[in-house]
Design goal:
Blueprint lengths: L57 E4 L8 E3 L8 E5 L3 E3 L4 E8 L9 E9 L9 E9 L4 E8 L6 E3 L1 E8 L4
Parallel strand pairs: 1-3, 2-5
Antiparallel strand pairs: 3-10, 4-9, 5-8, 6-10, 7-8
Length: about 170
């Protein structure tokens, strides 16, 4: 069975559709906002011009070396927002270091997508290195996300504390 909503070729303003479950085999296009109360799961790519998820960030602190894991296993299984603070570190220009973020069971699934961004850096950009944070791997079988920190600066060592926001889209199925 298929249904086509708002069949008029004239754009409709302030229209909304509420459903309990929806399966889409093609694309979903929203010119404004899509709101999901309990998360979004996808077997493909989710792209957005901007992304906002409600809830508070769970803070987590790295205790010793940049390459040591950050433990977030005490967070509840449904938690999707994390603010990670690295230890003050030195990373040579062009170098990359990896570290794990250990999560509680049920936070990740084979459909999870992880978004990371640098929220704060305690040093000056360029003269104190240029940090770039990205997801290296996701392993739901062991509830772990591996993040990478790369220093993009030419000739300047990264030297400082990074605060990284990590958002998980999708979860257990």
């Amino acid at each position: 069975m298929s249904i086509r909503f708002l069949q008029s070729s004239t754009p409709q303003e302030n229209q909304s559709i509420k459903v309990n479950d929806i399966t889409v085999r093609g694309n979903v296009v929203a010119d404004n906002t899509i709101t999901a109360i309990n998360g979004i799961d996808s077997q493909g790519v989710i792209s957005a011009k901007s992304f906002k998820q409600k809830g508070a960030f769970v803070p987590a602190q790295q205790l010793t070396l940049l390459t040591n894991p950050i433990d977030c296993t005490s967070a509840v299984a449904g938690q999707r927002l994390f603010q990670l603070r690295t230890i003050s570190t030195t990373l040579a220009a062009g170098s990359t270091d990896l570290f794990n973020v250990n999560l509680a069971a049920g936070v990740l699934s084979q459909f999870s997508q992880v978004l990371v961004s640098t929220y704060d850096y305690s040093n000056s950009y360029a003269s104190g290195g240029t940090p770039f944070v990205f997801v290296a791997s996701i392993d739901p079988s062991v509830n772990r996300v591996q993040l990478a920190v790369k220093n993009l600066a030419n000739g300047q060592a990264l030297a400082g504390v990074l605060v990284i926001n990590m958002t998980i889209i999708g979860g257990s199925v």
